[in-house]
Every structure is written in structure tokens, then in C-alpha cells.
């Protein structure tokens, strides 16, 4: 974590790294202690806590479960490690994304695919892409998933 852009999350990341290297249960304890101290909440105002992925009830959607319970299913891997860090670095963005994902689930239910809105929210959530431009053709390419036009041409 020597990159300057990681400096704001380095102290917490190092503590969590040590806990995660020891065991998954201790790692979850560290996340939950920090979440309680920070007063983190979901988009529906539920206090945020981290649980083992295995504790996600069968048939429950990840985003819906977070919105309904405040519990974030967390695996013992780097993807979920950085997801946890982002809840602390950008709590309002994460809460807003979760609220919008849950609203889509409430409206449309869970199907074989997420659907366009949930896909877009997940893409933003997991890739932190912000796209600002004044060129309508590029904006249209983004809306139409025209990646070649955006990133190659």
C-alpha cells in the first residue's frame, strides 16, 4: 500500500490485513469494530456489519440482504477486502448504490440476470468508473455500451 492514492485507507487496511492473515473470524471482528465506531449505515439506515458469506441465507440476494439487514456478506478474499475498505472510504456512495440496487430488487425481484440498472450500479460499484464529457456521441456510446467507440476509437 505504498501508492499515494491508497494513503487514506492504509492504516485500516494494514490492521485488516493482519487480522485477515490470522483468520477469517478475527478479520470480521476487526471490520465490525470499525463499522460500529464509524456509525456506518446502509441506504435504508440499517447499521452496517460484516458477516461470513456462508451466513447469507439460501435464495437471498446479496444487495437485498444488505439493504434489509445491514449485514454485508464477506468472503476471505481481496475483492471483498477492498469492498469493505470502500464502505469506509465512500460510505454515502456505497449506501446510495445499495439503496438503488435494493429498490430494483423490490420492484423487479431476482431473475436469471440482474438487469440493466443493477448491472450499471454494480459496474460503478465494483469499478468506480466516473465518466464526464461534453461530447454527446461519447455519452451515447456509454449508454449503449459502445466500449470500442469509447476506449479504442
Short structural description:
With 153 residues, the chain is mainly alpha-helical. It contains eight helices and two strands; from the N terminus they run H-H-E-H-E-H-H-H-H-H. It has one domain (4-128).
Biggest sheet record: 2 strands, parallel
**Helix and strand composition category:** mainly alpha
Tally of helical segments = 8
The percent range for strand residues is: 5-15%
Radius of gyration: 17 Å
Biggest sheet, spatial arrangement of strands? 1-2
Mean pLDDT comes to 91
Walk me through this protein's architecture.
This protein is mainly alpha-helical. It has one domain. The protein has helices at residues 10-22, 24-38, 62-69, 78-89, 91-108, 116-127, 136-143, 147-151, and strands at residues 49-52, 71-74. A two-stranded parallel ribbon has the order 1-2. Helix 1 runs antiparallel to helix 2, helix 3 (62-69) packs across helix 5 and helix 4 (78-89) crosses helix 5 (91-108). The protein starts with 9 loop residues before the first helix and ends with a helix.
Amino acid at each position: 500500500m505504498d501508492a499515494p492514492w491508497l494513503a487514506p485507507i492504509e492504516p485500516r487496511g494494514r490492521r485488516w490485513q493482519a487480522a485477515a492473515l490470522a483468520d477469517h473470524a478475527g478479520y470480521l471482528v476487526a471490520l465490525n469494530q470499525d463499522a460500529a465506531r464509524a456509525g456506518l449505515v446502509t441506504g435504508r439506515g440499517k447499521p452496517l456489519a460484516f458477516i461470513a458469506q456462508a451466513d447469507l441465507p439460501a435464495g437471498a440476494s446479496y444487495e437485498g440482504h444488505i439493504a434489509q439487514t445491514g449485514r454485508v456478506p464477506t468472503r476471505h478474499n481481496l475483492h471483498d477486502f477492498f469492498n469493505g475498505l470502500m464502505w469506509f472510504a465512500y460510505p454515502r456512495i456505497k449506501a446510495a448504490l445499495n439503496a438503488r440496487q435494493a429498490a430494483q430488487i423490490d420492484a423487479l425481484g431476482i431473475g436469471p440476470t440482474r438487469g440493466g440498472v443493477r448491472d450499471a450500479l454494480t459496474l460503478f460499484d465494483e469499478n468506480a468508473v466516473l465518466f464526464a464529457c461534453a461530447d454527446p456521441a461519447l455519452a451515447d456510446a456509454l449508454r449503449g455500451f459502445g466500449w470500442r467507440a469509447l476506449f479504442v476509437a
